[in-house]
């Protein structure tokens, strides 16, 4: 199915074949979980090229591709296979290949035109299959379980990095390969940093603590954010929490297929702006989620992408006030014809530990 879809795209891209070098796209197209190899796809052939370390693994994991072992530089084998397949215009992933690699390939390919293409596989990845959604649900369940667990661990005097490490250890015990990204655990004034990766700062009474984390599981990512209070927070922090919560609920209640990313973004942004905090919400409402923690589509003020059933997006409005603190609440959800289905289910009402 994926091969067929890619072959249908070759005409759109005006190429005879495509070279896939991105590790994410390689895994998506082939199912190969190793760390070395490239794929070449034409309308009638599909070849996966790797070295002796991975030929057995590739043969077990990959269907529909001829497995070829390269004994010299991989680009020499790519050129040989491209010539064998009579490729005249070979597309390459311009967003993945470095300039040095591009020039090396171009020199080796000689008479074959090396054509830059963008988003060839990523466009296919936008719509998730039932099998992909099942894995993403399981990844979200691990994140939900980790949040429930961490609430029993957090206490004043604990360092942010200790919280982050506990989340990491717990998710791995639940089957995750790792966290989806460097875990954000930002407390007190640091919670005003949208991407405040865990530090040595100790959590104090009255702090807001923003936790943004996810499980990397079977090649897919979950991504959840919850902001909690450790001790009784100030009235202003409670106020911004209630605004962010209402904005996030409006986003979750309103997102559906047929609207643009810009329209989805407005569901949360307009409410925050109406309440006087628009200047403190400086990022997009959300992003696509899948094999990468940030992929298409974007839910932003500039996104004209039309949401379609099967897309998975995050909904994560926030307010960040320097020297005071910040709030972000984030869920992962599947776009449906008549709405969306949340994959994350951790409580969102303000929790005070």
TrEMBL record:
Domain Peptidase M24: 135-337
GO molecular function per UniProt: aminopeptidase activity; metal ion binding; metalloexopeptidase activity
Record-linked SUPFAM superfamilies: Creatinase/aminopeptidase, Creatinase/prolidase N-terminal domain
Domain Creatinase N-terminal: 3-127
CDD domains on file: APP-like
Family: Belongs to the peptidase M24B family.
Protein name: M24 family metallopeptidase
């Amino acid at each position: 199915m994926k091969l067929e879809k890619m072959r249908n795209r070759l005409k759109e891209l005006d190429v005879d074949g495509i070279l896939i070098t991105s590790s994410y796209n390689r895994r998506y197209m082939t199912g190969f979980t190793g760390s070395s190899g490239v794929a070449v796809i034409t309308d009638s052939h599909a070849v996966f090229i790797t070295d002796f370390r991975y030929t057995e693994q590739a043969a077990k994991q990959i269907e529909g591709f001829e497995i070829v072992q390269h004994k010299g530089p991989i680009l020499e084998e790519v050129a040989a296979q491209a010539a064998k397949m009579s490729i005249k215009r070979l597309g390459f992933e311009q967003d993945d290949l470095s300039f040095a690699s591009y020039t090396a390939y171009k020199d080796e390919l000689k008479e074959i035109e090396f054509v830059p293409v963008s988003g060839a596989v990523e466009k296919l990845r936008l719509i998730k299959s039932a099998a992909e959604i099942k894995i993403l649900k399981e990844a979200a369940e691990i994140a939900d379980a980790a949040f429930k667990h961490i609430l029993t661990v957090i206490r004043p005097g604990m360092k942010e990095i200790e919280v982050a490490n506990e989340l990491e250890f717990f998710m791995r015990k639940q089957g995750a390969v790792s966290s989806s990204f460097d875990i954000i655990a930002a407390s007190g004034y640091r919670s005003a940093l949208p991407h405040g990766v865990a530090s040595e700062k100790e959590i104090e009474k009255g702090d807001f603590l923003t936790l943004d984390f996810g499980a990397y599981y079977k090649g897919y990512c979950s991504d959840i954010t919850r902001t909690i209070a450790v001790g009784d927070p100030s009235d202003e922090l409670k106020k911004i929490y209630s605004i962010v919560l209402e904005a996030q609920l409006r986003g979750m209640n309103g997102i559906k297929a047929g609207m643009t990313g810009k329209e989805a973004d407005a569901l949360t942004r307009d409410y925050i702006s109406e309440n006087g905090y628009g200047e403190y919400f400086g990022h997009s409402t959300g992003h696509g989620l899948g094999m990468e923690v940030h992929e298409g589509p974007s839910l932003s003020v500039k996104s004209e992408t039309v949401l379609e059933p099967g897309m998975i997006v995050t909904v994560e409005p926030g307010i960040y006030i320097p020297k005071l603190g910040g709030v972000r609440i984030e869920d992962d959800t599947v776009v449906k014809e008549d709405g969306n289905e949340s994959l994350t289910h951790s409580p969102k009402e303000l929790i005070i530990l």
